[in-house]
Amino acid sequence: MSGAGDNPDEALVSQARAGNKRAFSKLVEHETGRLLALATRMLSSPSQAEEVVQDSLASVWLTRHRLDPDKPIGPYLTTVVLNRCRDRLRRRKVADFFGLSGDEELHSVADDLPGPEALAVSREELNLVQAEIARMPVRLREALVLVTIEGRSQAEAADLLGTTEKAIETRVYRARNRLKERFEKL
């Protein structure tokens, strides 16, 4: 059973609900990096990921009265960001259909690996993996990113996505098999 005091952010959530911007900033600052990484993995675009996270945090601020002081903020923020990513992916799909999109940053990768040869090989491999993940249906991509890349349990992912653990297990299995099949051919 959960009781008062179970959530270490309880006081900050209460202050943020009351309109304290500093408390809200403090509340979300330790989540921002993780949310940005999640959005980048979902969208394959660092700039779009930044926009999604900023929009999500602004939305949470505007609807701060919905925050529950008894619940951790992380899962709530993750759900908001995932929903914004889904919206962005739907818009991208429509734009692609009508030929109105460009893949300006589809394959950008951080270049912090040592040596130019290792960097080139790693970048190419990462681009291939990112491109393959980007081609997956959103349901498979979400499950794969949450469980495999973010390290969440299947139960957490199921809770965040509003489905069962078995569905998450199946989606992750299918996503991994897609990647495996794709890269066995290379």
| Main beta sheet | none
Overall residue-averaged pLDDT value:
83
Q: How do the helices and strands follow one another from N- to C-terminus? A: HHHHHHHH
CATH class designation of the largest domain: Mainly Alpha
Which secondary-structure class do the elements indicate? Answer: mainly alpha
- The count of strands amounts to 0
Instruction: For the record, give the distance between the C-alpha atoms at the N and C termini, rounded to a whole number.
Output: 51 Å
Count of all domains? 2
Number of helices: 8
CATH superfamily grouping of the largest domain:
RNA polymerase sigma factor, region 2, helix turn helix motif
Radius of gyration over C-alpha positions, nearest whole angstrom: 18 Å
Q: What gross morphology would you assign? A: globular
What portion of residues is helical?
A: over 70%
